Amino acid sequence: LNKVIVKAVADVLGTAAFKLNHKQALERYGLDSLMAVELNVQLKELTGIDLPKMTLLQKGLNINELITIIQKNLMQQE
Predict the structure, then answer these.
(1) Helix residue ranges, H only, the chain
(2) Distance between CA 46 and CA 59 in Å, rounded?
(3) DSSP state for residue 58 in the 8-state scheme
(4) To 10 degrees, what angle do helices 63-77 and 2-13 make?
(5) Quick one: pLDDT at residue 78?
(6) In sequence order, what are the beta bridge partners of 62?
(7) What pTM was estimated for this model as a whole?
(8) pLDDT, tens digit (0-9, with 9 covering 90-100), for 13-63
């Protein structure tokens, strides 16, 4: 699951997954509201989780935190 999420983030940001620092805030990579919508669509397709729109735009949100949020949501669905 982690690799899938990282790849989705990398694709939306237009970079390679190995270049991403998982502790770096997504906004530092230039994630904007349009990219956040696109990422949310991809994550929903991949995981079935539809995150609230503002989740991806939280100040300081990084990949590790995003993975944790998605994992928690998946556990709640079970």
Answers:
(1) 2-13, 33-47, 63-77
(2) 24
(3) -
(4) 130
(5) 77
(6) 25
(7) 0.94
(8) 999 999 999 999 999 999 999 999 999 999 999 999 999 989 999 999 999
Residue 38: both structure tokens together: 């696109």
CA–CA gap between residue 21 and residue 64 (Å, rounded): 9
CB–CB of 61/31 below 8 Å?
A: no
Task: Judge whether 52 and 42 are in contact, CB under 8 Å.
Answer: no
Contact indicator for 46, 12 with CB cutoff of 8 Å: no
Residues with Cβ < 8 Å from 6, sequence gap 6 or more? 17, 20, 22, 63, 67
Which tokens sit at 2? Answer: 């982690």
In this model, does residue 66 exceed pLDDT 90? Answer: yes
Q: How many CB atoms lie within 10 A of CB 37?
A: 14
Assess contact for 61 and 43: CB atoms under 8 A.
no
Q: Report how far residue 76's alpha carbon sits from residue 29's, in angstroms, rounded to the nearest whole number.
A: 30
